[in-house]
Amino acid sequence: MLYWANINNVKVGPLEPGQLIAYGLTPETFVWRQGWQQWCKAKFVDEFIPWFGPDPRHTARPPMPSSYLPWALIVTILCCMPIGIVAIIYSSKVESRYASGDYIGSCKASEAARTWSIVGAVSGLLYCLFFGSIYLIQFIRLWH
Fold first, then answer.
1. Is pLDDT at 58 greater than 80 in this prediction?
2. What are phi and psi of 114, to 5 degrees?
3. For residues 32 and 39, is the Cβ–Cβ distance under 8 A?
């Protein structure tokens, strides 16, 4: 198939894809062939993709980081509600940021959710230990 290309504001063609690459065709260069109604970027033409490397639309991205949502819910219900709510908010940001392509933002939200879940669990444990010891002391005083 023969194509025309607009390379550096100069129309080149009709040429084969390999010949157009030699002229400096890039993925962002507009190309056209007979039968098309309008010009399009070379990166969207299947015949040019092998010349540019793997298709950027199909590149693998890293897996989504953990949202720590179950831990945030457990902390909210059993330990410390205010801190647990903060952990839930960060947990909910992980998936939305990952879906929008913000991998670094999803990692930061994941770390924040983990941190707030741990802080909530530790503060809930300390709360229980502190007031449990007070109740234990009062109980011992009553019976002695």
1. no
2. -65, -45
3. yes
The answer, yes or no, to whether the previous bond of 27 is cis (omega within 30 of 0) is no
Tokens of 116: 């707030």
Beta carbons of 6 and 29 less than 8 angstroms apart: yes
**pTM for this prediction:** 0.55
Widest distance between CA atoms in the chain: 103
Q: At what angle do helices 103-143 and 81-99 cross, to 10 degrees?
A: 160
The pLDDT of residue 56 is 52
Q: Which one is predicted more confidently, 13 or 81?
A: 81
Q: List, in order, residues 6 or more apart from 6 with CB less than 8 Å away.
A: 12, 29, 30, 31, 39
Lowest-confidence region among 63-67, 93-97, 98-102: 98-102
User: Cβ of 16: how many Cβ atoms within 10 Å?
Assistant: 13
Q: Please report the pLDDT score of residue 91 as a whole number.
A: 95
- Please choose, from the candidates 6, 34, 38, the residue with its C-alpha nearest in 3D space to the C-alpha of residue 20: 6
